Amino acid sequence: LIPAVESRYTTFANNVDYTGLKESRNHRLVGGFSLGGIATWYIFQKIPSIQNFYISMSGECWDENFNADANMVSNKLTSLISLMDDKNYLFYQCVGTKDSRYKKVNDFMSSFLTKIPYTEKRKFRYMIKENGFHSYKSAWEFLYNIIPAIFPYDF
Predict the structure, then answer these.
(1) 32/22 Cα distance (integer angstroms)
(2) What pLDDT was estimated at residue 49?
(3) Can you say how many angstroms the Cα of residue 134 is from the centroid of all Cα atoms in its chain?
(4) pLDDT value at position 65?
(5) Beta 90-96 vs 53-57: how paired, if at all?
(6) Closest alpha carbon to 11 in 19, 3, 135
(7) Is 17 exposed, middle or buried (0-12, 13-18, 19+ CB in 10 A)?
(8) Residue 86 contacts by C-beta under 8 Å, 6 or more apart in sequence?
(9) pLDDT in tens, 7-56
(10) What is the pLDDT of residues 54-111, one digit of tens each?
(11) CB of 89 within 8 A of CB of 22?
(12) Pick from 47, 16, 11, 44: nearest CA to 28
């Protein structure tokens, strides 16, 4: 999908091959809510080198076999991060305390953040919205607070 969009519209990519997409990654964000948040983690695991920013809102982290066990997945993800060539990324995980996914997301993030090296911890931002639900309103508030931090308004 990314090459199709980047080839049709004016973007920062000079070309849509792997090299061109990798060179323009600082201008690309992938994110999603609920199942889209799960897809965001999946994309991070599979093709981390063509986008720089990630936002998973109310999305659990599964592995390639759809396993959501917090300890197992955090171990696999920690190994993956250690093997990455380019570690220039920023990942936001967001969830509300009244979200139906809160326990699963919180269990995973609690396990994951204790396993990754300190140098990588600052690249993962875990946002918890007190009394936040699995809703459009919570997702909107997450985006409202994150987007300016990623793409600052500087004219």
Answers:
(1) 21
(2) 85
(3) 17
(4) 78
(5) parallel
(6) 3
(7) exposed
(8) 22, 48, 49
(9) 898 888 888 998 988 888 888 899 999 999 999 999 988 888 888 899 99
(10) 999 999 998 777 777 888 888 888 888 877 766 788 999 999 999 999 999 999 999 8
(11) no
(12) 11
Query: With a threshold of 0.85, does the pTM exceed it?
Result: yes
d(CA 85, CA 101): 31
Q: Which residue has the tokens 């690309």?
A: 28
Question: Residue with structure tokens 């323009």?
Answer: 24
Please state the length of the chain: 155
Q: Contact, 142 vs 129, CB < 8 A?
A: yes
Q: Which token pair is 96?
A: 């509300």
Neighbouring residues of 58: CB distance < 8 A, sequence distance ≥ 6 = 33, 34, 37, 94, 95, 96, 99, 101, 105, 134, 138, 139
* DSSP code per residue over 104-146: HHHHHHHHHHHHS-HHHHTTEEEEEETT--SSHHHHHHHHHHH
Which single residue is written with the structure tokens 């201008």? Answer: 27
